[in-house]
Amino acid sequence: MTSHALDQAMYTLEAGRAHPFGARCDAGGVNFALFSEHATAVELLLFDSFDAEAPSHVFELDPRDNRSFATWHCYVRGLRAPAHYGYRVHGPDRPGHRFDPQKVLLDPYAKGVTRARWDRGAACRPGDNTATSMRAVAIDADAYDWKGDRPLNRPLADQVIYELHVGGFTRSPSATVSRPGTFTAVAEKIPHLTRLGVTAVELMPVADFDDSQAGNFWGYSTAAFFAPHAGYCTSPGSGAHLDEFRDMVRALHGAGIEVYLDVVFNHTDEGNQLGPLFSFAGLDNANYYYLDPADPRYYDDYSGCGNTLMANHPIVTKLVTDCLEFWVRDMHVDGFRFDEAAVLTRGAGGAVLDEPPVVWQIELSETLADTKIIAEAWDAAGAYEVGRYPGYRWAEWNGRFRDTMRRFVRGDAGLVGDVADRLGGSASLYQARGHAPGNSINFITCHDGFTLADLVSYDTKHNEANGEHNRDGNDDNMSWNCGVEGPTDDPAVLALREQQMKNLATLLMLSRGVPMVLGGDEFARTQQGNNNAYCQDNPIGWVDWHLAGRNAGLLRYWRELLAFRARHATLRANEFYTPDEITWHGTELGAPNWSDPQARALACTVRGRAGGPDLHVMMNMYWEPLDFQIPADGRRWVRAVDTARPAGDDLRGEGAEPAVPGPTCAVAARSITVLLSHA
C-alpha cells in the first residue's frame, strides 16, 4: 500500500481485517473494510476535519495485502475517532458498472455523515468532486454509557404507535424547544407524548439523507443506512451522531415509550443513471441494484424512485440485516417499519418470491428476535401483499382498515360487514394464515395522505405548493369536507368536522389490532389540503403546536380515548373474537344488516375481559338520529362515549358515566355511542 501524505500527520498502515464491514475503532486505530467484487483498485482518503477541502492522506490499497476475495481492507494505526474519510474506487468501464475514480464515495456502513461541503450537482457531473463530497465519519460505537437502558420489549399488541417526523415535529417556533428539528427536541416533547398515552413512536426516516434537495424533506431517499441523519444532530461535525440519537432513545425509554424506525431498503438516494454517484453505484453497481437486462446502463425501478436495491442479493441481504442488528444492538431501537416492503420479496428479474431470503433472515435473526417488524406490504410496481406478507411475526400496515373506516364515516353505504371485520382485527385477512390481530397495524391517517383534520375538511387534494401542478399525491382520498371545501367560520361545519374526527379516532381505538396515530392529529394539525407534503420543509409540513391550545377539547378527547382503550383489555386482546365474546346488532338487537346495501348503522356487544365491564357500541353514520335497542338482560348500562356531545361530556372519565335507562338509546346523526355494563 502507498500513502500520499498532504500534511505532517503520519499513521502506520497495516493489512487489517476483512470483517466487520465499515470502520471499526479500537484502542490502537481504525480498521476499514469495504465490499466491491468488481473493483480493480481502492483508495482510502482521510480528512483532518469534516469541512476540509482536501484529504490529509490518500492510501492506495494493495490488492495483494489489502484484499480478501471481494473485500478491501486496511488498518490505520494511530487514527482516532472521530475520523472523516471516503473512498475512491476504480473498476471496469462497461455497461452495468459506474466506476469513476474521480468521485469520492461513502462507506455503506458509515455510522456518521457530514455534508459541510457537499455539492449534489458535482456528484452528477463528470470530474473530480473531492472538495465537494460527502464524508463518512468513523465513530467509536462502543463509547456510550447507556445507564442500564435496554429495549423495552413490550408486546406489539399492547402498543399505541405515534408516527412523527423528527424535523417537522419541532421545527415550528410554536414548539418552543431549545434545538428545533433535532433528536434532542423530540426528547423535549416527551411530556406531551406521555400525557397523550402513546406507548411507541415511529420515526419517519432518520438514516442519513440529502436534505439539500428540496424534495427530500421526509427523508425517504437514504444515503447512509447506519448513520443517524446529520440534519437532526446539533453537532454532526464533532461526530456526535450516535450519542445524540442514543440520548433521545434513552429519554423515551425512561418514559416507557418504545422507538421504531421507518427504514427504506427498497432504493437509495443515488436515483437513476443521471443521479449522483456517492456510494453503492460507484462501489459495485451490478451487485447492489436491479439493472435493465436489455441495457444495463439503466435501472429497473420497482420503487418509483429511480433505482431499486436488489435486497435478495447476498451482499445486500447482509447489509440489511447487519444494519437492523446494529440499530437494535448498539442503538437500542425497539422496532422497524419497512417502506415499500414488497420490494424485499422480489428476487432475480424482479419476480415476487414465495420465500424471500432477506425477509426470512430478518424474521429469524436472534438479535432481532424481540424486535417489532412492520411491513408496508406494497410497492410502486404493483405488488400488494397485505394479508399475505411472508413470515409469521411480520405485522403489516393495514391499508384496508384505513379505507373501510374512512368510507364508513364519510357516509358510504353497505359497508357494515367490512366494518365489523376491521373492528375485530381483520380476521378475513389474517386468521386463515394463523396470524392474529397484532399482525394488523390499524390506521386512519399516516404521513402519506391527508391529516385527520384535512380528511374531514377537503374533498380533493390541494398540492399546488409542491410544484407539480397538483398531479402528485393520491386522487382517491375517501374524504368528505362536511359541506365546505377548506377553512370556514361556519360553527355548524366546524362542529361536524370535530365530531367526524372523534368518530374516526374512536373506531381506531375500539378495534382489535395495533392502532397508529399520525403526529398532530390529536389536535387537528392541517397541511392545508396537501396530501403529499414530501417537499414541504415549512409550516405546511411542520406541526403547529398552537393548535394544541386552540383545539384543547379534541386533544382532551384523544387523551381520554387512549386511556379508555388501556382500561379495557378486551379491546387489546391479541385474538379474533369468538361468537361468545361478541354479538352483532343493527338498530335492533341481534339483527345486523349485513346484506342491506343501504346500511349505515352497526352495533355490537362485547364481553369484558380481566374483570372489566361489557361494552355496547352503537355506530350511526346515517345523517339522521337513530334509536338503538340496548340489551335488557339484567345489566345496567352507563354512557362512556358519545362523539356528538360537547367537549367534556363526549368521553366521561371512569366512575363519572351517566346511566342509560333503556330499552333504547338515541344515537345522534353521524356519531358513535359506547355504553358500559354495571352489575
From TrEMBL:
SMART domains linked: Aamy
Family matches, as InterPro entries: GH, GH13_cat_dom, GlgX_Isoamylase_N_E_set, Glyco_hydro_13_N, Glyco_hydro_b, Glycogen_debranch_GlgX, Ig-like_fold, Ig_E-set
Entry's Gene Ontology BP terms: glycogen catabolic process
Superkingdom assignment: Bacteria
Keywords from the named record: Glycosidase, Hydrolase, Transit peptide
Domain Glycosyl hydrolase family 13 catalytic: from-to ranges: 163-565
GO molecular function: amylo-alpha-1,6-glucosidase activity; isoamylase activity
SUPFAM superfamilies (alphabetical): (Trans)glycosidases, E set domains, Glycosyl hydrolase domain
Listed Pfam families: Alpha-amylase (PF00128), CBM_48 (PF02922), ISOA1-3_C (PF21156)
Family: Belongs to the glycosyl hydrolase 13 family.
UniProt protein name: Glycogen debranching enzyme
